[in-house]
Amino acid sequence: MSFILETQDLRHDFKGMKVIRGVDLQIRQGERHAIIGPNGAGKTTLFNLVTGMYRPRHGHILFKGQDVTKLKPYKRNRLGMGRSFQITSLFEHQTVFEHLRLGILSRMGVRYNFFKPMTMVKGLTEEVDAMLARVNLSEYRDQWASLLSYGKSRALEMTLTMATNPDLVLLDEPCAGMSAEETRNAVGLIRELTTGKSMIIVEHDMDVVFSLADRVTVLHYGKILACDTPSEIQKNKDVKDAYLGHGMKKQ
Amino acid sequence: MAGNIKKLVLGFILLGAIGIAPRFLGIISLNMAVELAIGALFAVSLNLLLSYTGLLSFGHALFFGMGAYVMGISITYMDGITLIPAILMGSLAAGLTALIFTPLLVRVTGTAFSMLTMAFGQLMYVLCIKMRGITGGEDGLTLFDMPLLSVPGVFSLDMTDPATLYYTVMGVVLISIGCMWYFTKTPLGGVQAGIRDNAQRVEYLGFHVSASKAVIFIISGTFAGLAGCLAAIFQQVISVDGFLRINVSFMPIMAIMIGGLGHFLGPVIGTIFLMFLNQMAMRYTDKVELVFGIVFIMVVMYAPYGIHGLWVKARIYWGIFRHRKGALGKEERT
Amino acid sequence: MKVLNVKGYLFVLTLLMMGLIFCNNCIAFQPLAGDIETFNPSFQYFDEDADDVIKIGLLWPFSGPAAANGAIYWLQIGWAVHDINTQGGVMVDGKQKKIVLIKGDTQMEPAAAKRAAEKLCLQDNVDIIMGSTGSHIAAIGQNVAAKYKKIFVNMASYSDTLMDQDKFNKYTFRTCSTTSMLANGLAHFYANRPEKDFYILCQDYAYGHEFAENFVQALAQVRPDARIVGKDFHPLFVKDFAPYLSKIQGANAQVIITADYTPDSNNLTKQWDQLGMTIPLAGPFVLNPLALQSIGEPYGKGFVTVQSCLLDLDKPGNKEFALAWNTQWKRWKDPLYSTNLFQWTGSTLAQATIGTYWLMHVIEKAGELNPDKIVATWEGDQTIIFGNLYSMRACDHQAMFNMHVSEIEWPNDYYEKSAGPIKVTAIPAEKIVPPPPKGLKNCQ
Amino acid sequence: MNPATAMYIIQALHGLAYGMLLFLVASGLTLIFGMVGILNMAHASLFMLSAYLCYQVLAFTNSFWMSLFLAPLITACLGLLLERFFLRKVQAHGLGHIAELLLTMGISMVIAESVKSIWGTESLVISIPPSLDGLASFAGIHYPIYRLFIIGLSFCILALLVTVLYKTKLGKIIRATASDPGMVSILGINTPKVFAGVFALGAWMAGVAGVAAAPMLTVFPGLADQVGMDAFVVVVVGGLGSLLGAFVVSLTLGELNSFGVQFIPKLAPVLVFGFMAIVLSLKPNGFFGEGDH
User: Fold this and answer.
1) Does residue D9 belong to any structural domain of this protein?
2) How many domains are contained in chain B?
3) Is the dihedral of CA C378, C383, C385, C390 positive or negative?
4) Is the N or C terminus of chain D more exposed, i.e. has fewer CB atoms within 10 Å?
5) Residue B247 maps to a domain
């Protein structure tokens, strides 16, 4: 089986504090993979290492068989890796339409053109509108992103990530802070958008994790504790200890 | 659509006014208009960085001066050169300077960017004084024998004639500002706005932020250089004080702030306001700086988005006022 | 009643006729003959719209960071204008015309300077423009003035290159000295002095370099055995001169030659004193009562100053001027003009006064305000003001006059808390005025 | 003593004296930036104003020590007012440093013009107080007492500052407020008061520097620009908000200045900005800067 993403003995530290202590992660082509773990397990750091925000102190990251350890985020994106952000990361002074337009531009590879106005780039407006319709954001087309409701801005966040049409999507707590209904909608949206793609999701909401994921990796103190199907993970004793025991001891 | 037509008509009226102005204005007003236009071009080029990319440059005079000096030097030391190649050399040199500095500048943002640009600007200022053999030191270069703006056999314009200078400068400035406006509508312009709001996100969308910034920086520098060339043609003396001093960098920032941050034509409004303020202050008092200081304080305190911000606010209040009036009217009727 | 009226009419007419006949001789103004006691630089108002006046535009920084400089020239020129106006004015076109001053504020910025010059020429329609501190500003001023055929009198910019082939035009005159004249004057003074080891400390810009070069050249001619033991050019507006001064102490110099002006000259003097130095300073601006007062006794005794005029207070003419000036400035209350600086009537404070008197003499001689007539009259003109002879070189419009150099002493009769000149050496003009610039048509 | 050694010592002392004076100005600036995030363009104007106040107090009381006490106090009060009635309001606009920059620049213009109207444009006569006048001699080297006094005074203030910031509870509060004002405010500490206090402290230090500089430098309306630019460079190169950075770079700049004059005078004008450009090119946030504000 071919892996779309593979990390080999990944290590990272902040000022000597070891956060990732040798992680070997393997994501299969087309699977939905969840990463869970108690607070401080290093989930977000691992995420940032994979997407290129930090450069790991040690180890390699292979994406589609290519070593991307030293590549900048924009290059990883061009290879087909997209990510969303835990804290909604949008453009304050731009409309919903303009957001997706930027994503589509990137997908089309129109990046440095300053001779042709955007209205004249072939198929651009149509594609954006189609995408808006697909995720039910058409009615907010010309509204500023900063004025959207929380649920809608999260939806825009995810749609924007998908606008560049990545093969592997990394979603960082897409459902954090949502109400039950919003979460249901979000999960639906994720399903809809990631059909046929590989996906890594970091999430605290176990319902989301177990309803979405094909496989689950449990991270604990910067190491992989277990990696298996959701049902196996639920039975795993180490995982229970890590979550509950840890909590018990503290109390 | 109606709004667009309104804007178009307004634009044509403005264009017409600019076209026939020399018939009504004296030389002084004409020259003031020229100075204004140059200042506006310079400020708009900076605004491309400030309002559209979120980069506050304290050293934009570097490019302004670079354009002027390279043009001046080529006229002084190259016999028989006409103005067009000299201007082209000037603006391209400014663009080239931007290109040279970009590897250092694109890495930084915020305060660090401002400081680094200021350092380079000041360094150029002292270097220009030091290289007095070429630049004429503080005395500067004099271009009293201004070559003609000509294409042999096609046309030839005398830049020492106020009306000709006026039309030429207005033409160049309008086209340049038009180019920059057009630029904000292109894909790179879109990327630029994205960088201003959230550079990290743009990077994760697959755009090379540093390279995009570099292109924008070079475009802005080139137009600043062009403004410098025009200013040199207008003043006929290129001196470090007039082109490279830190005040030269500050003036367009003031213009942008007063005109309205975030608006494309804010700097134009700001430049007009500053010029007007300077004239008024000079007429009534010797304490011009005091007036400027108080105005700056007032603007920041009470109109943080400048004149454009005030205008928007006024329109909102006007809307509320009309709405209330309308509501009242309805109430009375019922 | 009727008879009386006719008689009275005749009487008045006769008086008027007599007046007209005498006018040609008696109305010509004399320096210091006017009502100078009523002069106060802070309260000078002119009716810019009046008819039959001579309008003079002043191109100086009247606002902005260099406003102090404009204020000093406003005072100097105002003095001469007040003096002349209270005598009735200048005889032009058969009428006595008063002088009106109009400010053209350069703000020490080239763009503003050009705007101001154009406003003076076109809107205020002045007859003459005077200016201008800063050689780049003066260059703009003289260019604009020539374009509109106005006389431009340079009273403040020393740069030698201002009148060279590129920048010279026939409507521009310079009544102040050039940098080279100051430098040559100082060098000639040291021809017969015991000191022979010199250290040069000048500002690192055109004026400082020009001064240093000319001094070295002239010194080599008049004093072949002199040595330049060191040369430093410091940036404008140095905060701390101590490193320079300690370096000079180590170089065994006997004199420090400096062309610095304020604030650099003040800082230099103060820090010279703080380091307990004994090597005297020499230069055009070292005699500054404010700086010398702040260093305490003996208030800069032994410094050497070079100035174009007005140093020699025993000279007839000069003495009266100094006396009038010194009684007058103490009456001014405006903080701009009430400091001790103004007891210094040296050339820096009065060269524009002299220039103004001279220009008005020339206008009277020309009898009209036609610029070409004024140019023709001024070229080669000679006049004596306050006991000194001034002549205008015809070919490049540079004023020629003697330079005065003096070692300053304390105590002296003139300054209370500052050393002042007692024995003054006059260096004749022919020794110090540089040859006319090459390439000027008229000069060949 | 060997003249060469004496030269090295004297130039080093010159560098130290000017560097420490610079540090007095720059430390206030960097302290304010570190705390409130404001790049105060009017800081140097406060410095200049204090020098003028020193002249005025001298004229009334004829005592240098009195002016060393009073002038910085007045400056600090002024700083307090500026923070309370101007900067705090502008910070609420959320326009970032460009608005504060424009505001403080406006304030500096107003101060400069007021100074001109009150005291005129010529330089003021301020002599070194008799008790500190003259030269001190040791091992064949003569050095002005006043400059030694400046060095001593600056070290005293540095020691005071370090003690307050790192040894007292107040210092702990100040440092905590600088790093996380929201958290500290939840803990029941009046953060605006802390901000205002730090601003006043910075202004007070500018005031002390102004009085110390008045007899040594020339007091005229351009003094603010003259020293302000250097202080600015120090703060930027040292790392905005870093007291250690300001200290190290002030001394470096002072020594660079004096030994630059001694050995490479031709490059003296380029040195400061060249130094700044090189450092910032290599370390955009300055020597001791931490990230971006």
Assistant:
1) no
2) 1
3) positive
4) N
5) yes
Q: What is the mean pLDDT of residues B40-45?
A: 95
Tokens of C307: 């100035």
The ipTM assigned to this model is: 0.84
SS3 B125: helix
Please compute, for residue B59, the number of CA atoms within 13 A of its CA located in the half-sphere on the CB side: 25
Nearest to C63 among B26, B129, B288 (CB): B288
pLDDT of residue C23: 47
CATH number for the domain formed by residue range(s) C36-157+350-385? 3.40.50.2300
* One-letter identity of residue C5: N
A60: CB partners within 8 A, 6+ apart:
A7, A8, A9, A10, A67, A69
Identify the closest residue of chain B to A157 by CA–CA distance. B201
Q: How far is it, in rounded angstroms, from Cα A36 to Cα A55?
A: 22
For the residues of B35-99, what is the DSSP string, one character each? HHHHHHHHHHHHHHHHHHH----S-THHHHHHHHHHHHHHHHHSTT--HHHHHHHHHHHHHHHHH
- At B327, the pLDDT band (50, 70, 90 cuts) reads low
**DSSP per position, C179-191:** HHHHHHHHHHHGG
Alpha-carbon separation of residue A165 from A5, A106, A121 (angstroms): 17, 9, 18
- Residues C318 and C424: their CA atoms lie apart, in Å, by 13
Q: What is the rounded CA–CA span in Å between residue C279 and residue C245? A: 10
Cα dihedral across residues D161, D163, D168, D174: positive or negative: positive
At residue C406, φ and ψ (nearest 5 deg) are -150, 145
Which D residues 122-161 touch C at CB under 8 Å?
122-128, 133-135, 142, 144, 146-147
What pLDDT is recorded for position C363?
A: 93
Q: What is the pLDDT of residues C274-284, one digit of tens each?
A: 998 999 999 99
How far apart are the C-alpha atoms of A63 and C206, rounded to whole Å?
Answer: 63
Contacts of B330 (CB under 8 A, 6+ apart): none
Closest chain D C-alpha to B107 CA, distance in angstroms: 8
Distance in angstroms (rounded) separating the CA atoms of residues D78 and D82: 6
DSSP A144: B
Banded model confidence at residue C53, pLDDT cuts 50, 70, 90 = very high
* Average pLDDT, rounded, for chain D: 87
Q: Does residue D196 lie in a domain region?
A: yes
CATH number of the domain located at residue range(s) C180-309+403-432 in this protein: 3.40.50.2300
Query: Cα(B204)–Cα(B208) distance, rounded to whole angstroms?
Result: 9
**Among all chains, which residue has been given the structure tokens 């998908």?**
A162
Q: Does residue D166 sit in the same domain as residue D93?
A: yes
Pairing of strands D135-138, C304-307: unpaired
In chain A, where the domains are located: 3-250
pLDDT in tens, D174-201: 888 877 777 788 887 888 888 888 899 9
Residues D187 and D270 grouped into a single domain: no
CATH topology of domain A3-250: Rossmann fold (3.40.50)
For D287, list phi and psi in degrees, rounded to 5: -60, -50
The residue extents of the domains of chain C are: 36-157+350-385, 180-309+403-432
- Which residues does chain D have within 8 Å of residue B257's beta carbon, measured at their own beta carbons? 98-99, 102
The partner residues of A197 in beta bridges, in order of sequence, read: none
The maximal CA–CA distance of chain B, rounded, in angstroms, is: 84
Mean pLDDT for C406-433 is 87
Q: What is the mean pLDDT of residues C369-387?
A: 91
Tokens 């800067």: give the residue.
D289
Query: By percentage, how much of chain B surpasses pLDDT 70?
Result: 96
| Residues within 8 A of B (CB atoms), A 44-103 only | 51, 72-74, 77-78, 82-83, 85, 89-94, 98, 101-103
* Number of domains into which chain D is organized: 2
Q: Is the pLDDT of residue A189 over 50?
A: yes
What pLDDT, on a 0 to 100 scale, did the predictor assign at position A251?
Answer: 34
